[in-house]
């Protein structure tokens, strides 16, 4: 079996000023990634009405159909990123997912929308693995969690923009136009990524050729990862966090419309808005801002506390996983919608603390030649379990509780969300177990 190459030094380091520029470009691209992925959530109710869908179909559309292609294609693209030009890979990917987001606006039935969402997933598969690998080459190890956490801020930022923009545009022009507006900016940033991001390996053709000639097989790469107990504990813990987060995302707007509909309409009217626009702004701005703070804070805490004890990389998300559960349950139980949204912002802050520590851990327990592959395998596990099944299972549970159990649509979605939140106990247990191995397995 081929062995991984010995750790190589950082090659072709970029200047501090360029590093800042590159991180901002990658952040914007990842924000667009999540904008295009999550805009469907604020549009779920009008899409459901127009196309006559059930909640399980909403879950399929927002989760499994997207996730299968997103996760599976992430592996071969990551293998390419180990030796090929990563900015080009990112640029092509941005162009593909942006174009298919626009196509979503032309869908006339459930299956057409499913195919368009599959196209979005195909494009987005080429974003994060090469981006994580690129960032790890751009920045020193001691700043890696903070840098990846900065990139990960794109998750709440994109969700914020998708909820706010999607709701306002849908109210004014309909959900189809909202998809078109969401996809357009990515076509510009595809060019920016391809032609302004620096490939650190580009200037060292000899090293690129050597790395390509000694690249280990995917089976051998998996064999290396198989020896990293920390990787699998963290991957499964993050999968549970993703299951909760992605399961929550498509139905939180539906929860407020169904449970607090009249109050939301009244509040929207005081601001001269319609319900979707008001709710999109409220959820996007309040929870999105909190999510940005949480993602940034998680990386900073991991780097600072991890400098003294590497176990901080898993301790921080472990504690946050437990604390979020009662906060979320109370938010779902309140009668006042704005109080519930306010409490959900605390939940959003805590729920995003894991991004930087988890992704930095995956980059730091393997040789640099395996970083894109490690990122892709991690994302495959996280997104197949979390994105693939989170929305689908929450949607099915909502349908079951609403219909056969007889709770009705409003209480069905409420209890489906509450039940899924309790899975955070499993994430805590897995993160905590990783404390036993992480200090021995950090290598680069």
From TrEMBL:
Membrane spanning stretches: 21-44, 56-76, 88-111, 148-170, 177-198, 204-225, 232-257, 277-298, 310-332, 338-360, 372-393, 413-434
Species of the source: Caulobacter vibrioides (strain NA1000 / CB15N)
InterPro entries: MFS, MFS_dom, MFS_spinster-like, MFS_trans_sf
Cellular component aspect of the GO annotation: membrane
Entry's localization field: Membrane
Keyword terms: Membrane, Transmembrane, Transmembrane helix, Transport
Protein name: Major facilitator superfamily transporter
PROSITE patterns with a match to the protein in the record: MFS
Pfam families, A to Z: MFS_1 (PF07690)
Its membrane topology: Multi-pass membrane protein
Domain Major facilitator superfamily (MFS) profile: 22-439
Gene Ontology MF term list: transmembrane transporter activity
Superkingdom: Bacteria
